[in-house]
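Raw record, unedited: Flavodoxin family protein
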Amino acid sequence: MRALVVYESMFGSTRTIAEAIGDALAQRGTVRVVEVGTLMAEPGGDVVTHDVDLLVVGGPTHTFGMSRPSTRAEAVRRHGAVVSTSGGVREWLNNVRLPGAISAAAFDTRVGTMRLAGGAAAKGIDKWLSRLGASMVSPPTSFMVAGVTGGLLDGQVDKAREWGAKLALTLT
């Protein structure tokens, strides 16, 4: 199995989750975990090649959905330096080309008190990947943070590893 994990992260929590998912997937195959701005800057970064069996995409929830340039700018204004500085998952998905048959999954990070709220970045990512022709192998999944810059709640990294292991099993 070959997997590609693409993430956008503001303050590091989404990156930590992406890395934990990648660690779990690596138990079953080859994995590349890459920040979306880095990927977009690479030649061919807007094309997922046919040798990728599983695409996992995640980002932080901003105002009940995927981040936008305005919400990322506001995060910088209010909280300082961020991990993803040159575009986000929304922009990448708007330009990416996927192979005809690819399995995919979507995740996000969001404030723990938002559990009952209707919006989540993972839902938007899931819908977008589906529209691009991906076969979704898991419902959109959220990982909780203590606050905008508060870090992950206890148990979320373990949850991410478990989810990554389940994703790997869907391809074997």
